[in-house]
Design a protein that fits this description.
single chain; 169 residues; 2 domains; 9 strands; 18% helix
């Protein structure tokens, strides 16, 4: 087929794509599909707390809660790693609340996935987590923590834990 006789693309296609990119309905469709799929077998508390995270405190008159946000920069133009959209910088990964005697860790679906004891031992409630033991240790700098599985570092935490009655800050 010669160049002059090739069918022209429908200009409405561009308009639909542009409208879809600007409207939140189309942008939320892939996220909704991901959230409604059957979750694969993973230890959700490890998925939330691994990597570089920051705790943003939300204060109320009688309690505090911490929003867990990713602070990782992965990938980029000059990187060999592929960026993970589930761990994008600033993305909310979950929440930590102070309960009776321990911290509860909630996923973004507001389901409790595990707890952190006053001794900063992490316990996942998924069967897949098994007997794996993760602990949180204060980092060298103030206001930071390191998450360890045995001797292996799994991630870092910036910020502080919510106010509680069992003395963890």
């Amino acid at each position: 087929m010669s160049r002059d006789k090739r069918p022209r693309p429908d200009p409405r296609r561009f308009m639909i794509a542009a409208t879809c990119m600007l409207s939140m309905g189309c942008a939320w469709a892939p996220a909704y599909a991901r959230s409604t799929r059957t979750p694969s077998a993973s230890c959700r508390i490890a998925d939330i707390l691994s990597g570089k995270i920051r705790l943003d405190i939300i204060s109320r008159s009688d309690y505090e809660t911490a929003i867990i946000r990713s602070i990782e920069f992965r990938g980029g133009r000059h990187s060999s790693t592929v960026p993970d959209p589930q761990r994008a910088y600033g993305r909310i990964l979950g929440e930590i609340t102070a309960e009776r005697g321990a911290f509860s860790v909630l996923g973004i679906d507001r389901v409790i996935v595990g707890q952190i004891s006053p001794e900063l031992v992490i316990e996942g409630w998924d069967k897949v987590c098994g007997d794996s033991r993760m602990v949180i240790r204060p980092a060298v700098q103030e206001g930071g923590y390191v998450i360890l599985s045995g001797e292996n570092p799994l991630g870092t935490i910036e910020g502080r834990f919510p106010k509680n009655r069992f003395g963890v800050r």
